[in-house]
Write a structure and sequence with these properties.
There is one protein chain. With about 180 residues, this protein is mainly alpha-helical. It has a domain of about 120 residues: Winged helix-like DNA-binding domain superfamily/Winged helix DNA-binding domain (Arc Repressor Mutant, subunit A, Orthogonal Bundle). The chain has 8 helices and 2 strands, in the order αααββααααα. β1 and β2 form a beta hairpin.
Length: about 180
């Protein structure tokens, strides 16, 4: 079982698509981002509600509306996204097993209960280091990593795909303003 939900993965991928490796922002609808990545649109809409509530994305108005990053990409950490979507999750829950040792016959000695459990202390250190690592990585870092890995035309293809989708929506919205001509005569 994974620690973080699929929503965290979807959210990170989506925010990485809202910026290019230069840090330039893009706008996209949840529907387009879901289609681009092959993920469930309804679930992604819930993820974006959480991202917006956390101030990581902002809705854009109009027919071609969608979402954009609410802050510069180099100011949005992976930890920000994880916290917005899944909240604070501990990687370990201490069950105080040390208190139940059969040798204590139901009455653990003081020395066994003093301070933080040694195993819990290790897990708390791991939690802290994991969160520090997530806080050090930004959406811009991820976008740049993808930019180095992908062929140069990939970024252009993504931008063109998103722009075509946005242009199509604007054209579809304007169709109601065009008078229909009866060509059957």
């Amino acid at each position: 079982m994974s620690l973080y939900s699929a929503g965290v993965e979807y959210g990170i991928h989506c925010l990485a698509f809202l910026v290019d490796e230069l840090g330039d922002s893009r706008e996209a609808s949840v529907r387009d981002l879901a289609e681009l990545q092959g993920v469930p649109q309804e679930y992604l809409a819930k993820v974006f509600t959480k991202l917006a509530k956390a101030g990581l994305v902002a809705a854009t108005e109009g027919v071609r509306g969608g979402f954009r990053l609410a802050r510069p990409a180099d100011e949005i950490s992976v930890l920000d996204i994880v916290s917005a979507i899944d909240g604070r999750k501990m990687i370990f829950e201490c069950r105080d097993v040390r208190d139940r040792c059969a040798l204590f016959d139901g009455s653990p000695p003081t020395w066994a209960q003093e301070g933080t459990c040694s195993i819990h202390a290790v897990m708390l250190t791991a939690q802290k280091r994991m969160e520090e690592a997530l806080a050090q990585q930004t959406i811009l870092d991820i976008a740049r990593r993808v930019g180095r890995k992908a062929p140069p035309e990939f970024s252009t293809q993504v931008a063109d795909w998103m722009n075509d989708r946005r242009a199509g929506k604007a054209a579809d919205a304007g169709q109601g303003d065009i008078p229909l001509v009866d060509v059957s005569q």
